Amino acid sequence: MKLLICLSLQVLIDNIKEFAPIVYTPTVGLICENYGGLYRRPRGMYFSAKDQGEMMSMIHNWPSKQVDMIVVTDGSRILGLGDLGIQGIGIPIGKLDIYVAAAGINPQR
């Protein structure tokens, strides 16, 4: 799976102008609508209302100490699809894929 992610990012990097409009909209919207059935492994950090006051300690507990960028969403108003809740994680993942490809950011960071 990790190899597939690396290969797909390389294709996106090599063809950013062609694939950026496809990768983000409509693909991310479709993924968000069906994320529960597509789940393979965790990607992202999730907070609930019960985590209020603990978010900074949770962020500092992230396993990677070298993080260049984060994208945050509350899962509401996803591409005009409405509140998708936790399935909205596809938005930050899709945005980060575009940022990695367009800006040359190391996807491991």
Please tell me about this protein's structure:
The protein is mostly helical and 109 residues long. It is 49% helix and 0% strand. The longest helix is centred in the C-terminal third of the chain and has 14 residues, at 90-103. The chain is globular and about 40 Å long. Residues 1-109 form the Malic enzyme N-terminal domain. It comes from Zingiber officinale.
Which residue ranges are poorly predicted, with pLDDT under 50 across at least 5 consecutive positions?
none
Terminal Cα span: 18 Å
Helical element count?
6
Tell me, briefly, the overall form: globular
- Summed up, the domain count is 1
Largest sheet: none
Rounded mean pLDDT is 83
Strand content: under 5%
Order of helices and strands: HHHHHH
Helix residue percentage: 40-55%
Total strands: the figure is 0
By secondary-structure content and strand pairing, the structural class works out as: mainly alpha
Task: Kindly provide the radius of gyration, computed on alpha-carbon positions and rounded to a whole number of angstroms.
Answer: 15 Å
Task: Please render the helix and strand layout as text.
Elements: H1 2-14, H2 16-24, H3 27-33, H4 35-38, H5 55-60, H6 90-103
GO biological process, one term: malate metabolic process
Protein name: Malic enzyme N-terminal domain-containing protein
GO molecular function: malate dehydrogenase (decarboxylating) (NAD+) activity
